[in-house]
Amino acid sequence: MNATWQLPDTERGWVTDGGLETDLLFHHGVDLPDFAAFPLLDDGAGRRLLAAYYRAYAEVAARAGAGLLLETPTWRASTDWGARLGYDAGATARVNRDAVAFLRALADEVGDAVGDVLVGGMVGPRGDGYTAGDLDADAYADYHCHQLGALAEAGADLATAYTLTTVAEAVGVVRAGRDAGLPTAVSFTVETDGRLPDGTRLADAVTALDAATDAGAVHLLVNCAHPDHVRPGLDGGAWQDRLVGLRVNSSRLTHAELDEAEELDEGDLDDLAARTRALAADLDCVRVVGGCCGTDARHVAAMWDGWSPVTSLP
């Protein structure tokens, strides 16, 4: 992996998408066993639905004059989760490659309207995204090398592992990305107190990850938490400069409450936009802003309306 790789500078930052799975489930009535969206790539109607989903965010980026980070619908497309859905290792690698090709074609389509487009491969946790996993970084590295290798082979510009709950898995992901030769970012999730699900302070998680990998993650993010839940994790330390992205939940519910919810909590768009902007203003290096559970293109459009995390728009 190129340790010097950095997210390219743009005048307005990078728009990324929202809560793909909750959007599909609650707004489109799509059945997603194990919360997996990647099987839609193997169906013509599913591909059309995904294309429409991503085009909506391209429109947000075009209006904002920002770059567009397209991230593959492969949060669950690793071998353990793939096997549960009938995808063996070969089929799982193939669908990851297909996802990159799918978004690369879409990037070409929207390139005239959006000047800067990156295609990122999305990786998810080996276990549940709301429950702390084990502490074997080497085992995580072995596990994630399969998916990251497929994404690298397909020519993804970078990969990001989202909703990680432990430093150990983050270390494993970074090691696997390095072995695959793919620039890899890490996104931790936090509970309502700003700590990882295993109780680790966000500051300690970032510091420990960088120490264990020689700052091998190209950048860091926080996702799947309301802005009010991220804020208690901030202490003004230099480690905050490693945080480049925010993908926030619409709801203030805890992860446990969200897991049991039968109705979508879309939150208040204007309030969420204001709180996301305020949080980004306290994180000097944030460049990527999008949504997570409960959000859709409306939420991300509200965040970016007349605003950028990089500059104050007139």
TrEMBL record:
Domain Hcy-binding span(s) in chain numbering: 2-307
Output the PROSITE patterns linked to this UniProt entry. Answer: HCY
> What's this protein's name?
Homocysteine S-methyltransferase family protein
Q: Which InterPro entries match?
A: HCY_dom, HCY_dom_sf
Entry's Pfam families? Answer: S-methyl_trans
Which lineage is the organism of this entry classified under, starting from the top rank? Bacteria, Bacillati, Actinomycetota, Actinomycetes, Propionibacteriales
Is Metal-binding among the key words of this record? yes
Alphabetical list of Gene3D superfamilies matching this protein: Homocysteine-binding-like domain
User: In terms of domain of life, where is this protein from?
Assistant: Bacteria
Q: Enumerate the residues binding Zn(2+).
A: C224, C292, C293
Keywords associated with the record: Metal-binding, Methyltransferase, Transferase, Zinc
Which cofactor does the UniProt annotation name?
Answer: Zn(2+)
